[in-house]
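Last lecture ended with a question: if I hand you only a sequence, what can you say about the shape of the protein? Today we answer it with a concrete record. The protein is Nitroreductase. Below, first the input exactly as provided, then the predicted structure, then a couple of comments.
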Amino acid sequence: MAVPELTPEELLTTTRSVRKRLDLDRPVAPELIEECLRIALQAPSGSNRQGWHWIVVTDPELRAGIAGYYRKGATAYLAAGGASAAGYEGERAATQARVSDSARYLAENMHRVPVLLIPCLEGDVTQIPPQVQAGFWGSLLPAVWSFMLAARLRGLGTAWTSLHLGYSREVAELLGIPPGYSQGALIPVAHTIGTTFRPAPREPLETVLHHDRW
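The predicted structure:
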């Protein structure tokens, strides 16, 4: 499936969290994932340490195991009101309702996603002082975003998820992640159903912009 050529602005504004439009029945060629990861490796990292590692999970049993832990985390999150429309009105409430519905859909179908990507970073985040944790994750998050942008250009959909991290120890054991490495996210990857994505509705810039002071 060819993706229309995108300008940089179109790429940045139409790379969405894809859940219901993931094609759960179409395999993803390993070469596509590796192309995206090579691009991701060009991202900056603190002191150029490049301490990232990438676990590409396609084995059905391993995907099912990861999905089971994700489902537990998502169930608790949604039950607590995460992603709900409560407190919103009008179109924003409708948008949040759709987000909640799609989050539930992904939790129920994560095991069917053909590729699960878990980016890891050297270092145990539980042992890192709070004042430097932003820098720690800053050595991984830009690379993951680069992967997601590269995936969009290749007709692949992704979504940033992290609800499995409540069971990170169990997932580490399942995948053989050694001590001293921290999981940063769980990225489902699949071809998309259709390639047309639009910019999402956002609050006006004026409501979040501050000059010099809050």
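Comments.
1. The chain has seven helices and five strands.
2. The helical segments are 8-14, 30-40, 60-79, 90-109, 130-137, 141-153, 168-175.
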